[in-house]
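Quick illustration, no need to memorize.
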Amino acid sequence: MAARNPDVVLVTGASSGIGRACALHLARQGFHVFAASRRPAAELAGQLRALLPPSSQLDSVTMDVDADASVRSAMTQVETAAGRLDAVVNCAGFGIGGAIEDTADEEAHAILQTNLLGTLRVCRAALPILRRQGKGTLVLVSSIGGRMGLPFQGLYSASKFAVEGLAESLSMEVRGLGVRVVLIEPGDFQTGFTDRRARVRASNEESAYHEAFERALAVIEADERGGSTPEPIARLVERILLSSRPRLRYTIGPLPERLAVHLKSILPGRAFESVLRLYYRLNASRPACGSHVSGGRRG
């Protein structure tokens, strides 16, 4: 009997962080990985292959999830090269920090464009292939911040809350077609995400929220830098892809953060908010009335 060809998996956001860890781990485990990012395909493939055994199958495609034509072109390249597609792992995304009031429209549009609409574009482009095959898996990387609103991460949480709703609805629509949808909700992990987090331009010393934002951000960044490297997420993705009946939702990260998700469902809303305010050091003195909040635009 001929050996079965390895499953073909497309990983977006594969140039760094969770996406990079997933691409490398899955390739080491025998999957045929197509690593996607905005970087030139040959450059990314060369860098990743240098970290893999010679027998590993890893290719790369250039994909900008913000652009529909780029997503569709990359998906066509994968199908043409491999003849099929077994799974997509949606990792592309970024974070932005700052008060909601300080966030300009274009800053809000930018994160929703990538984190929500980018995920939508990739799933939409992959689904015709998966439907024709009658099987496949869409993994959407969300966040614990998609289960609870985090202070001064409001637009990031909003983008991930939206991904959660998208995945729940999509799962019901495509399950009868043989396609499985899975959410992964990571807590704090040590990746380049911390250093790449954008700040809303109005989060400066003139903002009424400046001191509270800096206190909360210090807690957030300390938790991220103190977290595990993202390999446990990559191993979880492998288990999901090998499972015949994966769950809709997997939460992964430090135990206190996973417990916080359950705590939210138990405590009254105001009580849970008080716990978060205390943790993120938001119970300090309130800003003086009349503090000036300046507008800002992303350059």
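The CA atoms of residues 36 and 128 lie 19 Å apart.
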